Amino acid sequence: MKLKIASLFFLITVVCFSQQKTTAAGSQPNIVVLLCDDLGYGDLSSFGHPIIKTPNLDKLAKTGIKLTNFYSTAPVCSPSRVGLLTGRSPNKAGVYDFIPGVKKSDDLRDLVHLQAHEQTIPAMLKSAGYATCLVGKWHCSSRFNSKAQPQPNDFGFDYWMATHNNAVPSHKNPNNFIRNGQEVGEIEGFSSQIIVSEAIKWLDNKKDQKPFFLEVTFHEPHEPVASPEDLVQKYLPFAKTREQAEYFANVENVDIAVGRLIAYFEKNKITNTLIVFSSDNGPETLLRYGDKAKHSYGSPGELKGMKLWTNEAGFRVPGIINWIGHKTFTGTSDKVVSALDFLPTFAELAGAKLPNRTLDGESFSSLLKNGEFNRSKPLIWAFYDAINDRKVAMRKGDWKIMASIEVDGKIIPNIHNLYDGNEALMKNAKLTDFVLFNLKKDISESEDVSSKEPKIFTEMKKEVEKQYKDLVNESHYWTRNE
Q1: CA distance 118 to 112
Q2: Which residue in 25, 305, 335, 443 has the most C-beta neighbors within 10 A?
Q3: Dihedrals phi, psi of 77, to nearest 5 degrees
Q4: Which domain, by its residues, includes 246?
């Protein structure tokens, strides 16, 4: 009898262990964030691209939720990533533009990094019992893999293999990955496939029953672009130049990598897994910085602007949500959703405690349940290095208002960073030169309707002035002694 009980206990233990990859702890879902780099609003076939084939992402959109009003938290990489991780405007963390290396500058950009006190998605989920992993691009610190600044593990990632910024020398055979603080050296293959393979390896080696948070941050299709030759050949008959074919192939290579990850989930019966897909910002402008941007054939679709703009194409990007193994609303949604919303949404789904601070994002769990989500907080962006004239933009409902910034009657020049040398200037600045758009009727921002809608314009102007003043006062200003 004792032998039978022991055998039964052993059998139950084996069954439970074998199911460790198929079930999360309790009802906590696994959470996967897939983030592209410089992918345009119109770069997926499901979002209207006439040539690029993205069947795996299209399937996620068709069987999940396709978001046509999804926004990144900034129109450029570093602040966008910081906003996603923290659920707050990146300005509040002091990250205003892309983060360069450690070369000293008068505006203190060499100091910029995600600071240790910032509270992030992986740290929050880790405290709720999650295993956490980052693979891909980090770009949240000027001193990468250095004890001088916090690294991914300091923000809750149990395991990470990442690069500071772009894959070097290109997406092909990159040599600048760091794994848990150790240099990896050259890796044969293409970046998107390399990081998905690393994610799969981490999942294979995961021996606990914890739910997981996996962030996969692709380098593609950011320059320097490199793509598999067979895919390039596939697109050459449809492209204007070889460089354009390489860009098209680059996007499809990401889709193939995503397909591999989904196939792994299916093979290993990993269910109850929430997947969100988006881009850090809009598409790069062709030849904006010479031949180094010669592959930049990204599409903004119907939107105005490109990366680095506060017009829609700068930060309105493809958004897809798919909760594998869980019944949700499915279909196309025009609800206004932001990457700022990831943190509060994940907290609610995971039963995690929210950070003790005011968030700019809101939980969109109701969207998952029934397709309804009406945000109470407007979305505001203040990007001081914008290519277009108006550096401040705010979306509230169907309406978007934009404004320039001036001091003493003069429009401020482009600024990379806020620090003690321009703090007084910025706090004394005011908004001016407002324009208003109805994005539901005019997705391309072609008509300023401020004179046609005086009541709405007055309300929006008052709201953006308040929101911007609060943002400037809560922004972090860097000093050399910190």
Answers
A1: 13
A2: 305
A3: -60, -65
A4: 26-377
